[in-house]
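Please review the protein record below. Let me know how this chain folds according to its tokens.
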Amino acid sequence: MGNRTSRRQLGTLLVAFAVGIGGTACGSPGPDAGGTEPKDVAAALEKGGKVTVWAWEPTLKKVAADFEKKYPDVDIELVDAGTGDKQYTALQNAIAAGSGAPDVAQIEYYALGQFAIGKTVEDLSPYGAITHAKDFTPGPWRAVHQGGAIFALPMDSGPMALFYNKKVFDKHGVKVPTTWDEYVEAARTLHKADPKIFITNDTGDAGATTSLIRQAGGRPYYSRGTDVSIDFDDEGTRKYTATWQKLLDEKLVAPISSWSDAWYKGLADGSLATLSIGAWMPANLTSGVPTASGDWRVAPLPQWTKGDNTSAENGGSSLAVPKAAKNKELAYAFTEFATTGTGATTRVTEGAFPATRADLESKTFLDKPFPYFGGQQANRIFAESARNVSTAWSYLPFQVHANSLFDDTVGKAYTSRVTLADGLDAWKDACADHGNDQGFTVNR
């Protein structure tokens, strides 16, 4: 998830962004707060023009075609400028150069903060975005909404669930865990029954780690403008480290990297028994592990405290309009179309997981059977998870670079005697040093 090729470039840009910014990263107030009236989007659609969209999401192809059919005078040019931090570096470079930036950019939630504080993406409130406040589920809306400003519209979401191999669990008489303590016990039972079986894989991943800390109630990050604090010593984070440390100490997780050939093999042959991951995972299992069809099922994410019902996001992205966009009104029109109403429904039909309440509550969506999961209506579990995502969460305004520091700090807990707690402490210090170097004031 980190940017290992362009750290110096990204750091330089963050210096430029941070200098002179005070207060919050909020933009103009929305129309409901006495701000400007919505921009004349309708006039822009009537006039037409070209909108360049940088995005890797394949469902946007159908959305773009539908938009052009509805508005014949508009040309949507989809450009795959790379995924994740590769695109973010290209976007930062185009912004710094003053030319070549797209009109619309797909930006993951964890990365949006660096563009918001850099004031390089539009506050969409004056365009009418505030009218969609109730259209989205809590987690995604919280990710794009800061104070009175809306820096993007949610495109999809990744509420977490437990994917488990029912065939393996049934063979060894193991019940599906409902708490993380039960999860550890299941890991022990399975590995004792067959040393080739691991409860899951883990070689250290910043996104997965922060998602589970979020679910546990950990709140390590706080930022207001350039004032930032990082603290991995709160109760929620300690819950996570105490539990996950047991799995590492007892060698109950496989030292296999996700998305590797060995990972796919483990998911296929049952040697990897579970995945705690976002609701976007079914399509990857169906295409990447076809031989295990019928073996897997979905369950709610285990809880840190018995009886709780709290979830977290893992993944998800938004569509933002850079300030460098040539036609902001037209760019907003496409962004709105792609993320709400029929555009959102089209994307769900094409395989995306919804961030919109209407699609999430649709009977068609909820009742959809998944042959891969033995006909299970898995969307019901995902939808419940989406409703229970903890919203009291924020990322660092330089989270993209922070994640690139994860392997050299927390990652050592997976390859040496360094504990997760010590690794997180080292990550905190590395992030704080970087933030201070870039013009932030970081408390730790």
Observations:
- The chain is about 40% helix and 15% strand.
- The chain has two domains: 7-157+315-360, 160-312+393-443.
- The CA atoms of residues 60 and 347 lie 7 Å apart.
- The two ends are 23 Å apart (CA to CA).
